[in-house]
Amino acid sequence: MTAAPQTVRTASGAPGVPEARGEVSRAVRRRLLGAPGALPDGPEIARCDPYGEDLQLALHLCYALHYRGYDGVPETLEWDPHLLRTRALLEHRFESALRHDCRHRGDVDEELGALLVEPAEPTGVSAFLASRGERWQVREYAALRSVSQLREADPYLWVIPRLRGRAKAAMVAIEYDEFGCGRADRMHERLYADLMVDLGLDPAYGRYVDAVGAETLAAVNLSTFLALHRRLRGALVGHFAVVEVTSPPAAARLVEAMRRTGAGPAAERYYDEHVEADAVHEQLVRREAVGGLLEDEPDLAPDVALGIAATGFLEDRLGARVLDSWEEGRSALRVPLGPEGHEGREDHEEADDRDRIVSGR
Predict the structure, then answer these.
(1) How far, in Å, are 63, 68, 209, 248, 288 from residue 13 at the CA level?
(2) Is the CB of residue 247 less than 8 Å from the CB of residue 212?
(3) Which residues contact 29 (CB under 8 A, 6 or more apart)?
(4) What span, in angstroms and rounded, lies between the C-alpha atoms of 147 and 244?
(5) Backbone phi and psi for residue 2, each to the nearest 5 degrees, phi listed first
(6) Sign of the CA dihedral with 207 first, then 146, 76, and 36 last
(7) Backbone angles phi, psi at 339, to 5 degrees
(8) In the prediction, which pLDDT does 344 show?
(9) Are 148 and 223 in contact (CB under 8 A)?
């Protein structure tokens, strides 16, 4: 099997620009790299599958500029008016599809209530991994989730200045935990990087973007899309509620999967941490973040419900894609992982070589 593409790690921690997956993402990629060529127009983007590889990667490329960016891409492109116009067109296509596909959603109480019901026989990816997942599947799951988990709490910071009162205090309290209560070694993104090392994966930021499919990118893009728009602050709080409410039972199953497959102490620790912390977060997010927001701004209730429904919709699509692949004995990645212990070896060797050159060794 061909190993997943290598993404060179840089001193800034920024990855290389991922490879294009169609004409739209190719045009955006050219813009980032300073190559000639026009950006896609409205009709071209309107023809894209809103959940497809090309559109979702193009959106991911635009969003990355608001995080750590890319190696060799000027930071000034974060506010490039031409890219912002293209991003707005991509977002409109994505949002329109989500609103249509989630049009039968319930109200906030109904949507939250459904999240709190744990079936007698759990299904989904975490249940599969806990009961019969093999180590290669655990590794694939970790690589898939790394696209979001290596910046786990970051998107939600954008909503804090847009809230007030109970909702704001609750979001700050939960985020403080997510960022390790002031300790870098306890930050959840750092714990996830340690998990990846236990599984023989490369923990470099952005390392597996080229390997994951559109379903993963769509689920990751949703939080950034909601976070960047003040008008969608209610939907982002709804998204956050899904993450925190569903985390404890799923994390408990994933602890079992890590133990059963011998993933290692850091891998177990990451999910153990989420069983304990997110049980508290679940109460805070429901009663204070959601409750406080709707007390202050009751007109945002439809947006909160949309955020919950859209998150569930995209996560269900991702879970179905992963399970369909595994049930057939196939990789759930676009390009399968390399042998355990070899992931990222070239990256680390290149980084060591650069360090030796700089230091004169």
Answers:
(1) 16, 7, 15, 30, 35
(2) no
(3) 17, 18, 19, 20, 61
(4) 18
(5) -80, 130
(6) positive
(7) -60, 145
(8) 53
(9) yes
**pLDDT digit string, tens, across residues 284-316:** 999 999 999 999 999 999 999 999 999 999 999
Which residue shows structure tokens 């699509």? Answer: 317
Residue whose pair of structure tokens reads 């000034």 in the numeric block:
76
Return d(Cα 82, Cα 84) in angstroms, integer.
5
Question: Strands (DSSP E) along 154-232, which ranges?
Answer: none
For 126, left (φ over 0), alpha (ψ -120 to 50), or beta? alpha
Residue type, 90: L
| Element holding 169 (H helix, E strand) | helix 165-178
Q: Tell me the backbone φ, ψ of residue 314, rounded to 5 degrees.
A: -70, -35
**Could you tell me which of 127, 269, 125 has the C-alpha nearest to residue 197?**
269
Listed in order, strand segments (DSSP E) in the chain are none
Tokens of 332: 């759930």
- Exposure string of 37-54, with b = 16+ CB inside 10 Å and e = fewer, is eebbeeeebeebebbbbb
Tokens 């109480």 belong to residue: 109
The string of DSSP letters for 319-338 reads HHHHHHHHHTT--SSSS---
State how far the Cα of 19 lies from the Cα of 5, in Å rounded to an integer: 9
Instruction: Return the ∠ at Cα 314 (arms to 141 and 130), rounded to 5°.
Output: 35
Give tens-digit pLDDT for 163-212.
Answer: 999 999 999 999 999 999 999 999 999 999 999 999 999 999 999 999 99
Q: Are 31 and 39 in contact (CB under 8 A)?
A: yes
For the record, the structure tokens of 130 come out as 């806990």
pTM above 0.70, yes or no: yes
**What would the two tokens of residue 355 be?**
């360090």
